[in-house]
Design brief:
The protein has 556 residues and is an alpha/beta fold. It is built from 19 helices and ten strands. The protein has a six-stranded mixed β-sheet with strand order 6-7-8-3-9-10, with helices on both faces. A four-stranded antiparallel β-sheet has the order 2-1-4-5, covered by helices on one side. Helix 1 runs antiparallel to helix 3, helix 5 packs antiparallel against helix 6 and helix 6 packs antiparallel against helix 8. The longest helix has 53 residues. Bound molecules: adenosine-5'-diphosphate. Adenosine-5'-diphosphate binds next to helix 10.
Length: 556
């Protein structure tokens, strides 16, 4: 950067020599005479300066970009770690698309701002300083015309203050658009079958138009800086021409020194303009930085307690004691629930939707912490155990199976990252999934599409069960699929589940007759309370009972 700035400033000197020599030629000096003295030095300088300038420019750009890219990658890694570390609840507070836009858009804004800061603050500022020194050295009186530029300082400050707000609006809107796009593409199936394409296009179209409005506001502010400097630049040049002509005619200066000062102004103008708009870029960068630090600085409230102990060699005795739970929005999902699953028991949670069944399932791996009461495993309050050991002891099979766009083997392997290929295949066998997996084009190495779109519902479930089998946890949480699987898949899924539950404590949100009939105990939940407890037989017999009515409704 220093070399580049020096090389650029030297141009004023080159112009001075060229103009003075040309003037001498015109006044009748011979070419040979004109070339004497430092006249000949002009050639190496003419070739040398661009060479130095070009090479330093090349190095400086790569350096500035790699500094910016490295900083940004660091931020992305920190944001990702913080996102995975934060509370589950934080994801329901913020639309996923907004979070994604921070990783993609805001990080880009910062990278751009960093490159500008490095280039402008160091390189351009040096160029400005060196050029001004060169100008003063060659014709200090004329160079004083530069002070006119100082008039630009106040309007530029006023403009950047206005811009701070516009930049924030633009960035927040990018988050909105990303969320809307994500939502829209995630819902492609529904949008197509309900013929909602036109509505979606219109809805998102409005967002894109809004972007134009917000962006134009920002650009309008930004665009004001250039003309101000342009007009002032014109004034500076006019002043130089007038005083320059006077100086030359009265023999105070050579034409070359006027050429040098004008060249200096040409060099200064774009640099000053860049410095003038730098504040805008910094404002934009700072506002993106705030959004990024919101993610990085988010402290999870669900963490290991000060003297947390690991849960080891547990029996799987799960107990909820008078548990109350309120969601952040104040919804009281559980109002004093007590229930128990002894080691190896099968417990079924049933009841109308909204009763609190999923909430109970979410409390066990501490996706949320209870608002009052306690959850214990083998009589240890789960808030006193380490999160890692707690979650290691729990396997979850939910009805919306989460599959990643990876191979079948990898998807099962998430159950236990240390598992061998053989373990994975055995787990698939136990989950009655081995046959259909080996029939896939690349067997276990078949890449299943995003969310496993290439598999049937029953197949996805069996992969999820294989994953849980591989995890080999003593406590198993199961959210039974409500959607009807075909009879054969259903039988296979049941068979797989039976193997899985062998010797484990199983807590199931039950929808199937087969499951509730086998349950050691059924808890009927309604509006956040356990309203009935018992076996299928005892509850079904109870006249006027809620379970009896549910059973008649759902199972005939
Ligand atoms: P179920 O699984 O029995 O259908 P849930 O446990 O999902 O019931 O829900 C219990 C209550 O909590 C419902 O009133 C539901 O609207 C509410 N609820 C569930 N999830 C949230 C959430 N993330 N934020 C606020 N309220 C929620």
């Amino acid at each position: 950067m220093v070399m580049l700035a020096l090389a650029t400033a030297t141009y004023t000197y080159v112009v001075k020599i060229v103009v003075d020599k040309a003037t001498a030629l015109e006044q009748g000096q011979s070419a040979l005479e004109a070339a004497k003295g430092y006249g000949l030095a002009i050639l190496p300088i003419l070739i040398g300066i661009p060479l130095i300038s070009g090479l330093s420019n090349y190095g400086q750009r790569i350096l500035a970009n790699s500094i910016a890219l490295n900083s940004v990658a660091d931020m992305q890694k920190q944001m990702l770690a913080a996102s995975h570390n934060t509370d589950y609840a934080s994801f329901s507070r913020e639309p996923t698309g907004n979070r994604i836009s921070k990783f993609v858009h805001d990080v880009g804004v910062i990278s751009h701002a960093l490159i500008r800061v490095i280039s402008n603050l160091v390189r351009d500022l040096l160029t400005v300083i060196f050029t001004i020194i060169a100008m003063l050295w060659q014709n200090w009186m004329l160079s004083l015309a530069m002070v006119i530029f100082a008039l630009a300082i106040w309007p530029i400050i006023a403009i950047s203050q206005r811009m701070r707000g516009s930049a924030k609006d633009v960035q927040e809107h990018v988050g909105v658009i990303t969320s809307e796009l994500k939502e829209s593409f995630d819902g492609t199936r529904m949008i197509k079958t309900y013929g909602l394409e036109a509505r979606e296009n219109e809805r998102l179209g409005k967002s894109f138009d809004e972007r134009i409005r917000l962006f134009l506001k920002l650009v309008t502010d930004q665009a004001r800086v250039d003309p101000i400097l342009e007009v002032l630049g014109g004034l500076v040049i006019a002043a130089i021409v007038i005083f320059g002509v006077y100086q030359v005619s009265s023999g105070l200066a050579t034409p070359g020194s006027i050429g040098a000062v004008l060249t200096g102004i040409m060099i200064l103008s774009p640099k000053l303009r860049a410095l003038g708009t730098l504040n805008n870029v910094i404002q934009e960068g700072l506002s993106s930085l705030t959004r990024i630090f919101d993610v990085i600085d988010e402290k999870p409230s669900i963490t290991d307690a000060a003297r947390a102990v690991p849960l080891e060699d547990i029996q799987g005795h799960v107990k909820l004691d008078n548990v109350r739970f309120l969601y952040e929005d104040g919804t009281e999902a559980l109002k004093g629930v007590s229930l128990e699953a002894k080691p190896g028991e099968l417990i079924a949670l049933v009841g109308e939707s909204g009763g609190g069944k999923s909430t109970i399932i979410n409390l066990l791996p501490r996706l949320y912490d209870v608002s009052a009461g306690s959850v214990t495993i083998d009589d240890v309050d789960i808030r006193k155990t380490t999160l890692e050991s707690l979650r290691k002891n729990i396997a979850l099979v939910s009805q919306d199976v989460t599959l990643f766009n990876d191979t079948v083997a990898a998807n099962i392997g998430f159950g236990d990252l240390t598992a061998s290929r053989e373990d994975i295949e055995n787990a698939a066998r136990a989950a009655a999934a081995h046959d259909f997996i080996t029939a896939l084009p690349d067997g276990f190495d078949t890449v299943i599409g995003e969310d496993g779109d290439t598999l049937s519902g029953g197949q996805k479930q069996r992969i999820a069960i294989a994953r849980a089998i591989l995890r080999d946890a003593p406590i198993l949480l199961l959210d039974e699929a409500t959607s009807a699987l075909d009879a054969e898949s259903e039988a296979k899924v049941q068979q797989a589940l039976e193997r899985l539950s062998n010797g484990r404590t199983l807590i199931v949100i039950a929808h199937r007759l087969a499951t509730v009939q086998k349950a050691d105990r059924i808890y009927v939940l309604q509006e956040g309370q356990v309203v009935e407890t018992g076996t299928h037989k005892s509850l079904a017999r109870k006249r006027g009972g809620i379970y009896a009515r549910l059973k008649d409704l759902q199972m005939g």
